[in-house]
Amino acid sequence: MSTIATLRKGEIGYISEESLDFIPLKLLEMGCLPGAEVQLVQIAPLKDPIYICVNGSHLAIRKETASKIIILKANL
Amino acid sequence: MSKNDIKVALIGNPNTGKTSLFNQLTGLNQKVGNYPGVTVDKKQGTSKLSATQNAIITDLPGTYSINPTSMDESIVLKTLLKKDIKESPDVILVVADIENLKRNLLLFSQIKDLEIPTVLAINMVDQMHRKGITIDLSLLKKELNTEVVLISARKNEGIEDVKAAIIRCHVAAKASPLCGIDHKIDPDYFAKLKEISPNYSLYELWLMVTQNNYPETVTKEEKEKLLAFKKDVSKLKKYQHKETIYRYQEINKILKKTYIVDKSKATDLRGQLDRIFTHKFFGYFFFTLLLLVIFQSVFDWASVPMDFIDATFAEIADFAKSNLPSGMLTNLLTEGIIPGIGGVIIFIPQIAILFLFIAVLEETGYMSRVVFLMDKIMRRFGMNGKSIIPLISGTACAIPAIMATRTIASWKERLITILVVPFTTCSARLPVYAILISLIIPDKKIFGFLNLQGLVLLSLYALGFATAIIAAYILHKTLKIKSKSFFVVEMPNYKLPSVKNVFFEVVEKTKSFVLEAGKIILALSIILWFLASNGSSSFDNAEKNTVENVANQNLSDQELQQKIASARLENSYIGVLGKTIEPAIRPLGYDWKIGIALITSFAAREVFVGTLATIYSVEADDENTSTIKEKMQSEINPETGKKRFNFPVGMSLMVFYAFAMQCMATLAIVKRETKTWKWPLIQLFGMGLLAYVASFITFQILS
């Protein structure tokens, strides 16, 4: 199963409907909506947190949160 | 404030240029105060809207929604829900960033549903063309059913339009909601909720339920009914999720018609800069380099104005002494009040320079990258990436540093950060370190270029930072607080800092330091002066007794005066106090005179130098105008016949000052931020104990 945490640098995915229950309200409000395109921009030097671009927002989130958000990878 | 003034609340996401707009609207007519009953700073300013109309503008903390996760954000909710005629805003001014309009409109849609007249100011439109964005303004106004203004706050464009829109909006009738949530999610549920009270909009009632926040005006009966809705928590959560998605659907529909982005025109400076600043090697390298530059500047640049302030206050005191009639009042002025004020003013240069750097780093967007770099490291010690900003600010002053923890969402991480911040070497320790180092460390070079004194100072800073980290780790392992660690940080686009914003920020922070710490330091100087110039009967008889005691010693008049002064000090209230604690501090290498300085500097560390100056100058004869350093240098330990401030004593004192919680203003702030005396008392005794043990060990090993 792919999550935001399993994306590689530069890779793009789409947030799946089934992850809705696991996305914290805060992230939802910042644009992490089901169906939204999410790109992994950077990984912090110590492998955590990660820097993503979703729905036009550039956000840093921890891997723990990212691993709960299921995605469908593009170009699979 | 007149009755006709329009009360405007300024709201927006972080990094939208909200502060720029506030500065443009209010200029120098700004005031910082406290929200009644809450501990967060309230920034307010007056703006002249037209020839006859003024507005009182309140700048609220940046937030992504009115469902708060941090203390800063909860202020926004509280202000908006307050159904108090005096406090509640007439018009809300929402600031949005042209580039992130979609996300910004989420907050706007929530505010609009509160049915308060709202103006939307879309900022940074000067970059519209470069980013390939086009907007259909008139259609957007119609779709959002509100006043929309395009502005560029940094370039001072569109500010007059904002003012006009506020007036129009204020005159217009009651506003209508943008996204009626009632019929979209669970119509029956929301219909029942709405029945509770006709005095509130549906969205207000919904917020009271979900946020567990009830304005004073809610009746007991209404509150009971609202509480009944709270029972099914999972349902609430589900509906909140649905609500957010529904809002985004509506926003997307509107933006599709009115907002077009041609991505091919966008440049990618952000990506390139991020590659450097968050690089696994260069990222940390650049951050370290930056810290070195900051500290170098704080000490180098600040020393010139600090020396000037020091000299000026000494001159003022001298001038007052020689020109005012001698007496109690003059003494109070020259020995208590003037040095007291000087002791506060002298820190302004250092604090201003440090806050200048912090403001610039925040403005450019670099701070978010530091947070990103440091999160994993800080987490190991029970804090999070955002804790790095308070820890850096702490090197200027713990007070604003502790206030800067308000953005940390997790209570445990925030509390740990608050508790360890006082270990970082604040500028009040600097005068203590500076004088002790110059007394006990020889001024020589090692390896030909490193200054030994500078190196010792640097290790004291390292000691403070290391202790903060270790203390955080211990607290992390011992504190049993359940608090979900949640971390989302926006990485804003890089920007050139605005001179105006940086200027206002530095002025405001420095001012709040002077007012917060200044009151305490000044009050203490006066108390200290009183305690040193008064005492019980043996104090009053000191002169007579001394003259009798030395009657057949044939002393010169000068020697006699010195003996009298010594006896007076020893028998003053403060002298008695110092003597009382002497047995306890003897193992650390201190005598009762140092003890006095220790006691007084529990209120504020920098008082240490001033106290010794007072003590030794009360003792000294009038013609001796040597500096405090010379006085300390020549102070003799009567037991050994050697210098009082030798290497072991000096080191022991520096270690004591590195660890002890000697700052009343900080304790007061910690009390305010944690809402209990428990944590400041733990800080006071915990750090005090550590200081005692550590300086005991230092002294015993070295001597």
From TrEMBL, chain A:
The keyword Iron applies. Residues 2-73 form the Ferrous iron transporter FeoA-like domain. Keywords: Iron. Pfam families: FeoA. GO terms for molecular function: transition metal ion binding. SUPFAM superfamilies: C-terminal domain of transcriptional repressors. The keyword Isomerase does not apply. PANTHER family: FE(2+) TRANSPORT PROTEIN A (PTHR42954). This is Ferrous iron transport protein A.
UniProtKB/TrEMBL annotation, chain B:
Gene3D superfamilies: P-loop containing nucleotide triphosphate hydrolases. GTP binds at residues 12-19, 37-41, 59-62, 123-126. Residues 5-172 form the FeoB-type G domain. The keyword Acyltransferase does not apply. Mg(2+) binds at residues 23, 26-27. PROSITE patterns: G_FEOB. CDD domains: FeoB. It comes from the Bacteria. InterPro entries: Fe2_transport_prot-B, Fe2_transport_prot_B_C, FeoB_GTPase, G_FEOB_dom, Gate_dom, GTP-bd, P-loop_NTPase. Pfam families: FeoB_C, FeoB_N, Gate. It is a multi-pass membrane protein. The chain crosses the membrane at residues 281-299, 337-361, 388-409, 415-442, 454-475, 513-532, 649-670, 682-702. GO terms for cellular component: plasma membrane. Probable transporter of a GTP-driven Fe(2+) uptake system. Belongs to the TRAFAC class TrmE-Era-EngA-EngB-Septin-like GTPase superfamily. FeoB GTPase (TC 9.A.8) family. This is Ferrous iron transport protein B. It comes from Polaribacter butkevichii.
